[in-house]
Amino acid sequence: MKDLLFMLADLWMIFAGFYFGWKFIRRYNNYLLGLEWMIVATSGSNFLLWALLGGDESSPLYNIAYFFDAFSRSVGITLILVMGLLRVTHRYKPSVAVDVGAFALAAAAGLYFQQFRGHELHVGPATFYVVVNVLTTLFLAYFSWRLWKIGAKGLAIGAGLATAVASAIAITYDFFPLQGDDEHRTLFYTAALATWGFQMFVYFLAYRALHNHNLATGAEPAANEHIAARA
Predict the structure, then answer these.
(1) pTM greater than 0.85 (yes/no)
(2) Which strand (E) or helix (H) includes residue 84?
(3) Cα angle vertex 173, ends 63, 60, to 5°?
(4) Dihedral angle over CA of 145, 130, 158, 65, nearest 10
(5) Residue 54 burial (CB count, 10 A)
(6) Residue 211: exposed, middle, or buried by beta-carbon count in 10 A (0-12, 13-18, 19+)?
(7) What are the angstrom distances between the C-alpha of 219 and each of 87, 90, 189, 197, 210?
(8) Structural domains in the chain plus CATH codes
(9) Which residue, among 108, 110, 100, has the nearest Cα to 80 in the 3D structure?
(10) 58: which residues sit within 8 A by CB, 6+ positions away?
(11) What span, in angstroms and rounded, lies between the C-alpha atoms of 207 and 177?
C-alpha cells in the first residue's frame, strides 16, 4: 500500500507538471513557468523509473534525479517561479535572454550541488535551500494576498495552503527526517510529491484568475485578449 501511494503521488505530480506546464506555454506564452513545470514532471518521471528499477544509488538515474532536485530547489521553484508569477502581479515579462539565463543558472546550480548527493547532511546546501524557500514563500504570501484582494478567496486559501505545506516539506527535507519512515524515505516522498503536484495545479488556477482579472480591469494589454479566450 505504501509503495502504491508513492507511485500515485508521483504520477499525479508528473501529470500536473506536463499538463499545466503546457497550458502555461500554450495559453499565456509563459515559458518560465511552463518549462519549469515540465522540468519538475520530467524529474518525477525519472524518479519513478529509478524507483521501479530498484532504487540503486549507483544508477545514472540517481545522479539525474539529484540534478533535477537541486535544479528546482535552488533556482527553479524559487527564482524562476517568482519571475514567472511576476507576469500577473507586476506585468513583468523578461526577455528571451533573461529566460535562458535563468534556466542556465538553475542548470549550473544543479551541477554544482551534485557533489553533495548522499544520505549525510550537508549543512551549507541544506541551509541554502531553506533560505531561498523562505524568501520565495514571502513572495507567495503576497501572491495569495493579491488573489484575496480580487475576490478569489478560495484560490487564495488554496495557494496559501499549498505554500505552507511545501515550506514544511522544504524544512523537513534535510533537517527533520520523518520518524518511522523507511530507508528510502517513502512516506516523506509520497507527501512531497503530492504537495508539489498540488502546488503546480493551484498556482496555475491562481495565475489564470489574476490574468483574467487584469484583462477585465485593463491592467493587461488588450493584445492579450486572445489568450483569455483560450483560457
Answers:
(1) yes
(2) helix 81-89
(3) 10
(4) 140
(5) 7
(6) buried
(7) 11, 9, 40, 30, 10
(8) 2-230 (1.20.1070)
(9) 100
(10) none
(11) 33
CA quadruple 185, 186, 190, 196: dihedral positive or negative?
A: positive
pLDDT digits (tens, 9 = 90+) for 21-61: 999 999 999 999 999 999 999 999 999 999 888 878 788 99
- Quote the CA–CA distance of 40 and 229 in Å, as a whole number: 28
Q: How many CA atoms lie within 13 A of 46 on its CB side?
A: 17
> Is the pLDDT at 155 greater than 70, yes or no?
yes
Give the C-alpha separation, 54 to 29, whole Å.
39
* CB-based contact 150:209 (threshold 8 Å): yes
One-letter amino acid of 198: F
pLDDT at residue 116 in the model: 82
- DSSP character at residue 88: H
Helices first, then strands: H and E counts in the chain = 9, 0
- Using DSSP, state whether 96 is helix, strand or coil: helix
